[in-house]
Amino acid sequence: MTTRRCPDCGVTTTEMRVQTGDGFGLHLVTDEPKKGLLGGLGMRETLRLRAFVCPECGLVRSYAARDE
User: Among 22, 26, 39, 41, who pairs with 33 as Cys (CB 3.0-4.6 Å)?
Assistant: First the structure.
């Protein structure tokens, strides 16, 4: 688990799930093709979006989940 701190308050942030109103998780689409057959069909790699929220000031920071 990754620990992140709020740059404004200095307190530990809480990781929260980011999703659409339909319940689907958000992800980032890269310029890299997917591996295998799907890449040959033009599909691109995706990265899960991780969001961290400060319990003090409400600042939200988003990060791309890499190499998990």
Answer: 39
